[in-house]
Specification:
Radius of gyration: 20 Å
Structural class: alpha/beta
CATH topology of the largest domain: Quinone Oxidoreductase, Chain A, domain 1
Number of strands: 16
Largest sheet: 7 strands, mixed
Bound molecules: NADPH dihydro-nicotinamide-adenine-dinucleotide phosphate
CATH architecture of the largest domain: Alpha-Beta Complex
CATH superfamily of the largest domain: Medium-chain alcohol dehydrogenases, catalytic domain
Order of helices and strands: EEEHEEEEEHEHEHEHEHEHEHEHE
């Protein structure tokens, strides 16, 4: 039996649909030598949380959900000196953030500037760094490129649109409703196609806009449903970046399909771009600079009390949301 004080957290003991999400008591974590203990104010909700809940990305159980958050440092691990202090307002990427307290490695913690609220801080990192690494590392978007962003009004999608526009690209987005299309346009998409009834209109529009050449790059977070269309609309020597499974995982691919146009295909995850503290610091500094310079802004869809976590997952999975969902602890 642990003698640690109890805290509240969303901990799963099996994989399944959102009905398994319960707010329970667990022992308060103790920071390891390289960790800080954060009293969480807000936790970001991401699609990956739904994969970890459902078992698409299986976890050893029991497991506290959540991959990012913001709050105040309340305790330092024994090796943490200089960079962080008790009382610092921080945001972080790390497991276990659907909880009142989380012990997180200093590797991926960032101090928040005074002008960034804790609410905004919890919305920044996971989707912001994902978007920034997509357009800078997975494929270096250049001025004049034709770029296709699937789910353009989603959390990551809105950011990719803004960043591509900032980098001078021509941005085509896909969304499932007119309201989402309007939002994508306000966030940098030059053209938006509704893909809810199939992909013929998308293929036609890309052909029309690019003189039948196709786009230089597709950023595809939707996965199973869009993958074939992504291969169709990319140009010869173009790039398809698959980085999500919102409609289900992409089935195994016969690589001979790439030979038709010498397509580059990547399946990326943010975590492989931030494996060292130096990588995390460099990328998060660039992201905070973009925010400070008003080059990107983060649209918060809704803040849910942590007790409404089931509703947050249901809303995200049923395509009802745009931008960022947060849980308030
Ligand atoms: P979003 O806000 O983008 O929500 C998902 C969107 O996908 C929906 O709003 C919907 O937009 C679209 N969609 C299309 N088909 C479906 C479907 N069958 N079910 C549900 N949604 C569908 O979520 P996030 O911004 O949190 O994440 C976007 C994607 O990026 C996810 O797939 C996530 O896994 C991935 N991701 C990957 C990372 C990585 O490191 N590889 C890191 C972060 C996110 P519409 O209604 O317009 O079709």
């Amino acid at each position: 039996m642990s003698s640690a004080p109890a805290i509240h957290a969303v901990q799963i003991t099996s994989h399944g649909d959102s009905s398994i999400l319960t707010y329970v008591t667990v022992p308060k974590p103790t920071p390891k030598p390289d960790q800080v203990l954060v009293k969480i104010a807000y936790s970001g909700v991401n699609f990956i949380d739904t994969y970890q809940r459902s078992g698409l990305y299986p976890q050893s159980l029991p497991f506290i959900l959540g991959r990012e958050g913001s709050g105040e440092i309340v305790e330092l691990g024994s090796d943490v000196k200089g960079d962080f202090n008790v009382g610092d307002r921080v945001a972080f990427v790390g497991p276990g953030s659907y909880a009142e307290y989380d012990a997180v490695s200093t590797h991926s913690v960032v101090k928040l500037p005074d002008n960034i609220t804790l609410e905004k801080g919890a919305a920044l990192l996971l989707q912001g760094l994902t978007a920034w690494t997509l357009v800078r590392q997975a494929y270096k978007v250049e001025k004049g490129d034709w770029v296709l962003v699937h789910a353009a009004a989603g959390g990551v999608g809105l950011l990719v649109c803004q960043m591509c526009k900032h980098l001078g690209a021509n941005v085509i987005g896909t969304t499932s409703t007119d309201a989402k299309a309007q939002l994508a346009k306000e966030n940098g998409a030059d053209y938006v196609v509704d893909y809810s009834n199939g992909y013929d209109a998308l293929i036609e529009k890309v052909n029309e806009l690019t003189e039948k050449k196709g786009v230089h790059v597709v950023f595809d977070s939707v996965g199973a449903a869009t993958f074939d269309a992504s291969l169709k609309v990319v140009r010869r020597l173009g790039t398809v970046i698959s980085f999500g499974n919102s409609s289900g995982a992409v089935p195994p691919v016969n690589i001979m399909r790439l030979a038709e146009k010498n397509i580059r295909l990547m399946r990326t995850t943010l975590f492989q771009y931030i494996t060292t503290r130096e990588e995390f610091n460099a990328l998060s500094s660039e992201l905070l600079r973009l925010v400070a310079d008003n080059k990107v802004h983060f649209a918060i869809h809704k803040v849910y009390p942590i007790q409404d976590v089931k509703q947050a997952h249901d809303d995200l999975e049923s395509r009802k949301t745009t931008g960022k969902l947060l849980l308030k602890l």
